[in-house]
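Following up on my earlier message about S-adenosylmethionine. Here are the inputs again, as you asked, copied directly from the submission form:
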Amino acid sequence: MGKIRRNYYDLFSKFYDRFIAMHATDGQGALRDILAEHTAAGPGDIVLDICTGTGAALRPLAARVENTGVVVGLDFSSGMLRAAHEKTRSNARVCLVQADCSRLPFKTGVFAAITCSHAFYELKGKTQVKTIEEIKRCLLPGKPFLMMEHEVPENRLVRLLFYIRLMSMGRERAVQILKHELVFLKRHFRHVKKTTTITGRSKIYTCI
Ligand SMILES: C[S@@+](CC[C@H](N)C(=O)[O-])C[C@H]1O[C@@H](n2cnc3c(N)ncnc32)[C@H](O)[C@@H]1O
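Thanks, got it. Here's what our run produced:
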């Protein structure tokens, strides 16, 4: 199953950025800038972006940690990582790691922040809970996990597409995501704060 999903994302990586550009309202990647700001990371910090895909969040994160910090982009798809490498190869602060986010290949307590944008909903089965456990293990004490996801769209057609995508993940999971995401996060983190982004189309959960 894992291999099939990786192959799917390898294929998707060939047109992912063009697909996102067709739908995005933040052509300049403003959403990932906002996500990076929410990390409160600063010079010298080590930050991890899981399910980094083509690496959209890596540039703004690297800007925060400056020349003394490190940003790690992790994904299990070699195709996605190849695209991320194309974007970030001139940035010495960025490293890319191929791994499953439910088994993070890092020591305990190393990251000043961990981010995940528009990917957590796509994790299957027990992977979500295992990933949260790994995130908590790898974060420095008191440091945040930032999860960015889509809000339910206002436009009727886009909303229909959003529901179709959720339902393709299975009815039970779709209901769980829509109704219980806050409950789910609060089960794992002591403090969970939701912020709606300026576009109104995405939300960021800050979890500590
Ligand atoms: C919708 S893309 C999001 C990419 C990026 N974060 C963004 O905001 O554009 C989801 C990404 O999650 C990755 N992914 C899915 N399941 C994963 C897993 N179990 N471990 C690591 N990466 C995974 C996929 O390969 C894909 O690159």
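One observation from looking it over: The chain has a mean pLDDT of 90. Hope that helps, and feel free to reply on this thread.
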